[in-house]
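Handout, section B. The chain below has 74 residues.
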Amino acid sequence: MNCEPAMRYFFHVRRGGSTYQDTGGTWFSTPDEARTHAELIAAELAPDGIWQEAWLHVVDEENQEIARIQVIRP
C-alpha cells in the first residue's frame, strides 16, 4: 500500500505559440504515476495530426515541472 500523500498534477499542452492550460489537474501519489499518465495522454493525441510536435508539460501543484513529453504521430 502506497502511503505517500497525493499531489495534484497539471497537464498543459503547448503547440506553436499556444498553450492549453489544464486548470483542474489530476491527483496522483507519485510523480512517476503522473509521468505515466502524461505518456498516455500524448499517445491519445498522437493520431490526430494537429497535435504533431506538441509538447505535454506536467507540473505539480507547486508549479515544478516534472516531465515534458513530445506528442509524436506514429
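Note. Residues 31-45 form the longest helix (15 residues). Compare this with the example in section A.
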